[in-house]
Amino acid sequence: MSQISTSAVKTSGASRARFHFAMLLPGGFVTFVLILFALALVVFLGFRLNGGNLLGDGYTLGNFATVLSDPLYLTVSLRSILIAGLVTATTVVTAYPVAYYLAFHAGRRRKLILFLVTLPFWTSYLLRVFAWKIVLAYNGVLNSALMATGLIDEPSLAFLNTPAAVVVTLAHAYAPFAILPIYVALETMPKSLTEAAADLGAKPFTTFRKVILPFSMPGVLAGALVVFVPTIGDYVTPALVGGPSSTMVGSLIQAQFGKANDWPFGAALAVSVMLLIAALILTVRSMDKRYGSRT
């Protein structure tokens, strides 16, 4: 009997191992083949010379030297960081009150508001960008409304094809990505903390500044990171509503892989952006640990 039970246990363990392997296989394939292999290929291309073929000819550091020395790419990179930073700040500042209301004052309306927050995910990102283009256009909704109220006499060109248009459009598109992490952080905060602050005589603003805001900082940092990472490499929005003065590094990368047919230099640009994002992630992680120690 003992031999039979031992063999049954071994058979069951082997079956369980095969089942776990089968469940992990699709995710492992996507991670190691479609993601890591593609990433390794981009890094490899960044060190190649452009020979007109897919993998380039020979090895060089010139691509990265050009990225670091050419004023054009430095200017566009700094502009991308600035625009992405403004988008992140605008998104977090506007998202925090919504998350705060959801966590503490929404009540029975919480599910409805959460539904409305996630509703933009039901539509295409391009449709949302085109909607803003219609709103900000020369004969668009905003100019028509301002003319109807008598604030302006003729349509203005100051709304579309500007960095401000890019910031507004991206902030609207990525607002849910900031609202949800902040809401989760606030929702998990023990109410006893605010009650203790009130018992000690703290005013509402003092309670918010000394208790609520520090506790929610991990959510704020997570939301900021989730917004900053995709916006710094965005090229669709600047192309549609930004114009030449709002060209970002994503547009340059797309041009190198497209019109210029210089895949090695495009890969070097992409790797440079990834290194910048990696440095940002490390900074945010250190900040998260610092604020986490306070809570």
TrEMBL record:
Q: How does it sit in the membrane?
A: Multi-pass membrane protein
Query: Which PROSITE patterns does this entry report, sorted A to Z?
Result: ABC_TM1 (PS50928)
Keyword Magnesium attached: no
User: Is Cytoplasm one of the keywords UniProt gives this record?
Assistant: no
What biological-process terms (Gene Ontology) are attached?
Answer: transmembrane transport
Q: Which PANTHER family match?
A: INNER MEMBRANE ABC TRANSPORTER PERMEASE PROTEIN YDCU-RELATED, INNER MEMBRANE ABC TRANSPORTER PERMEASE PROTEIN YDCU-RELATED-RELATED
In Swiss-Prot or TrEMBL terms, this protein is called ABC transporter permease
Query: What species is given as this protein's source?
Result: Rhizobium setariae
